């Protein structure tokens, strides 16, 4: 699964991941247009646009995790639901911190999801494979981390408060990525064990 999702077909299959990748493209575009290099002062308007890109990313991810929490009991165990609820709260907290920083800089918090696809993503979540959904989340977390690191490099010493905010968010997102990878592997192991147990209970059927 490509982190950049350049093919339109993939955009349709993975709207959530495509939206996160598009937010990254926008952020890199803002930095590219500014043409700032090491040693130059980062432009305030660009910083505000980058903060709003971060705000959008965090809100999109928080919405994704909230949708997981609404999945049926059959599709999602209570322990996993609690974990997703915790992540949704953490992403919302990041969004609130970013919005507060935008206001401090005299800007207006404006979340701008790339497409309407985000609004529909997850409607059929109960019918999807949770391990595959977690794989999307893991890629999205890595895209967000890479994007924030680029913003940190761009901001540099020009805006210490904004740089430190993104550094703190990156630390949490790295933890999220590690936990998602662990959770996905645990679910996959459970699935393999269940298949093995089923085959062991029906040896004759397996030979047919």
In a nutshell, what does this entry contain?
With 208 residues, the chain is mainly α. The protein contains eight helices and no strands.
Descriptive report:
The model is unreliable at 1-11, 116-126 and 204-208 (pLDDT under 50). The chain has a single domain (8-203), classed as Ferritin (Up-down Bundle). It is 75% helix and 0% strand. The two termini are 35 Å apart. The longest helix is centred in the C-terminal third of the chain and has 42 residues, at 160-201. With 208 residues, the protein is mainly α. It is elongated and about 60 Å long. The protein has eight helices and no strands.
Query: What percent strand?
Result: under 5%
Q: H/E element string?
A: HHHHHHHH
First-last Cα distance: 35 Å
Structural class: mainly alpha
General form = elongated
CATH architecture: Up-down Bundle
Instruction: Compute the number of structural domains.
Output: 1
CATH superfamily: Ferritin, core subunit, four-helix bundle
Q: How is the main sheet built?
A: none
Mean pLDDT: 81
User: What is the class in the CATH system?
Assistant: Mainly Alpha
- Whole-number radius of gyration? 20 Å
Helix proportion: over 70%
Give the count of helical stretches.
Answer: 8
Q: Under CATH, the topology is which?
A: Ferritin
> How many strand elements?
0
- Which stretches of 5+ consecutive residues score pLDDT under 50? 1-11, 116-126, 204-208
């Amino acid at each position: 699964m490509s982190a950049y999702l350049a093919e339109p077909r993939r955009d349709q299959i993975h709207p959530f991941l495509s939206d996160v990748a598009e937010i990254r493209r926008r952020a890199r575009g803002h930095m590219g247009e500014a043409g700032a290099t090491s040693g130059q002062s980062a432009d305030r308007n660009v910083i505000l646009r980058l903060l709003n890109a971060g705000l959008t990313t965090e809100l999109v991810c928080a919405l994704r995790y909230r949708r997981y929490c609404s999945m049926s009991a059959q599709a999602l165990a209570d322990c996993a639901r609690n974990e997703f609820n915790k992540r949704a709260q953490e992403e919302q907290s990041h969004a609130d911190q970013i919005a507060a920083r935008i206001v401090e800089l005299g800007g207006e918090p404006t979340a701008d999801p790339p497409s309407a696809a985000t609004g529909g993503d997850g409607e059929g979540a109960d019918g999807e494979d949770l391990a595959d959904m977690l794989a999307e989340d893991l890629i999205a977390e890595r895209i967000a981390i890479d994007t924030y690191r680029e913003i940190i490099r761009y901001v540099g010493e020009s805006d210490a408060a904004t740089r430190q905010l993104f550094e703190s968010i990156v630390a949490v997102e790295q933890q999220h990525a590690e936990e998602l990878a662990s959770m996905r592997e645990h679910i996959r192991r459970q699935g393999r064990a269940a298949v093995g147990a089923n085959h062991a209970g029906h040896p004759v059927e397996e030979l047919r």
